[in-house]
Amino acid sequence: xxxxxxxxxxxxxxxxxxxxxxxxxxxxxxxxxxxxxxxxxxxxxxxxxxxxxxxxxxxxxxxxxxxxxxxxxxxxxxxxxxxxxxxxxxxxxxxxxxxxxxxxxxxxxxxxxxxxxxxxxxxxxxxxxxxxxxxxxxxxxxxxxxxxxxxxxxxxxxxxxxxxxxxxxxxxxxxxxxxxxxxxxxxxxxxxxxxxxxxxxxxxxxxxx
Length: 209
Description:
Blueprint: E1 8-17, E2 24-29, E3 43-46, E4 49-57, E5 60-65, H1 67-72, E6 80-86, E7 105-115, E8 118-126, E9 138-141, E10 144-154, E11 157-164, H2 166-171, E12 182-187, H3 189-200, H4 205-208
Antiparallel strand pairs: 1-2, 1-6, 2-5, 3-4, 3-6, 4-5, 7-8, 7-12, 8-11, 9-10, 9-12, 10-11
């Protein structure tokens, strides 16, 4: 479990194929992320996707990404900067919102432009995720916990708008986004449970088992 508060911007330095249809092994420079309390088997979110560290070497760590994960995410198959967050502890402060690190789908950047000192980011989510977005609700974009400022249904899904403050631009990879890019989206965890409960509300006890 994570909070969506990026702890450091790291960099994927090396991408090694693990074999045909077997995924890749990534070597990641952790940047400013403290790895002193991280051991093999611990979880680290990379661009919002929860990955298991299989090796630690000073300021670098290694993860193995399955072909399935590669097909459902962006930014884990090439050298470049990535948002990093270690798994939260039970006594941690939740500065963002509860984030599972399981990417639900890919969003498309519609526009990204400065507005005063901040930036306005407009994303389009696919139809399968559209119902999970709400005004002032939470969303995770490339591992960053953000607040939805506007949402509108469109023919092929939903478009939603986010305001990014200068601090978020400075300490995450979101600053490099441009129209046409794809991003990793994780919808609000609570919204998923609410949908499930409402969907089961009319079912009989036997149907619910």
